[in-house]
Amino acid sequence: MAEAERGPGGGPLALLKARALDVTFDVGDEYEIIETIGTGAYGVVSSARRRDTGQAVAIKKIPNAFDVATNAKRTLRELKILKHFKHDNIIGIKDILRPTVPYGEFRSPRGSPVPPRGWH
């Protein structure tokens, strides 16, 4: 394999792209996913269109964002930073889509079920 076809750490880019295509974007009826436009260390970005306005948007999906404490912290940090950016070359946050998984099915970063609401 040519050097240009290798990703970070020497792994093939084709494998990285195949993994990205396995990510399911459940965006409900508000958005129409167009195509995958990029992958990163822990997320996949797809171009999409908001159905009611036709506005072009990018949607980032972070699979299993809360399975590992480090990933949860990175996600929160990224959201906090992007909330304050106002620049033509940086996409701002328009919306945050929450998973449709019932609260009781969430797991803590250590793998155990999340305690019920109000539990102390």
From TrEMBL:
An annotated Gene Ontology molecular function: ATP binding
Assigned keywords, A-Z: ATP-binding, Nucleotide-binding, Phosphoprotein
Entry annotated with the keyword ATP-binding: yes
Top-level taxon: Eukaryota
Domain Protein kinase: 31-120
Pfam family, one: Pkinase
Keyword Transmembrane attached: no
Binding residues for ATP: K61
Cofactor(s) it depends on: Mg(2+)
Gene3D superfamilies: Phosphorylase Kinase, domain 1
PANTHER family per record: MITOGEN-ACTIVATED PROTEIN KINASE
Entry protein name: Protein kinase domain-containing protein
Organism: Patagioenas fasciata monilis
